[in-house]
Amino acid sequence: MPAPKKVVLAYSGGLDTSIILKWLQTEYGCEVVTFTADLGQGEELEPARAKAEMMGATGIYIEDLREEFVRDFVFPMFRANALYEGLYLLGTSIARPLISKRLIEIAAETGADAIAHGATGKGNDQVRFELAAYALNPEIKVIAPWREWDLTSRTKLIDFAEKNQIPIAKDKRGEAPFSVDANLLHTSSEGKVLEDPAVEAPDYVYQRTVNPEDAPNEPEFIEVGFEKGDAVSINGQAMSPATILTRLNELGGKHGIGRLDLVEGRFVGMKSRGIYETPGGTILIEAHRGIEQITLDRGAAHLKDEMMPKYAELIYNGFWFSPEREMLQALIDESQKHVTGTVRLKLYKGLARTVGRWSDHSLYSESHVTFEDDAGAYDQKDAAGFIQLQALRLKLIAMRNRRVGK
After folding, report:
1. CATH of domain 180-296+338-358
2. Residue 25: CB partners within 8 Å, gap ≥ 6?
């Protein structure tokens, strides 16, 4: 592959991506444009601008993508109630296609012929970044320094930084206790003190949630309004997608909701242990299932649940821009046409539970299910024929088995 002339780097301003910036300049002699996305990670991003300027970046992009992130990526995923391996709300996975999308767009805007990222060769993110990039621009060059350079230890990284006058935060001189990724949907912590899955994670790992044992002793009740499968209000107040998730994060964090200790199967083949905090997302998926309970037909709901693991796996593995994910999304979105109404939830000591739901689009008929007089809404005698027809094949199998010996 010929050396790139201009590279757009996914840049956090931290030590690793600052080293990558300098390494690209020295290794390839190319221009480097930095892109820093505000996805709600909760960090001040202006220092990244100053650092990129100091290090000679020829272009600097810092963008607030919180609304686009929640509206166009998180909410579509939550319409599917997506959980990877039955537990993980895909907080890191769903952010990568948006970052790749902007890297490709900025490359086109600036005339860059390559993009670069700081994901390691052991993880899922390299796959997610690159599959998304190639889906959007099959000619783009992708540089993954962790798969190329010989800076294979923290000591070598620090030495490189010192030799190239790259500022090093004092707490970076020693081994970091664990690695953190964060955005508006979640925080993810991995490595070091978390690498032994037999040992409970220390409480200081958690950043967004109080320990459920220390959460308020009184429950809090909230109401989340939905339109066509997406949350649109909290307690009757209309809000934008990112504002809703921000507020749910505050509520969930206060009540210790959304903690997950998971050993997951990475796409690259190994298992890894992660500590995830998804306070707002945990409330949101509970609320979404709550409103679907009364607005979504049984057949549609069960079909969605059958497809959900495949949909979640596609996102986890980096196939957001694949035709199969888009096909599933079209089917999921069709199912959400009547998923409109309000859910009341109880938040208490690490749990979010639906305690009420109502909708003008409801399929729930009290006259059909009541234990009192239903005024002729349902004829219980009809059940006898229904059962006989359902039992017919079972009877025939039993008769055959009795005849020939099972």
Report:
1. 3.90.1260.10
2. 32, 55, 56
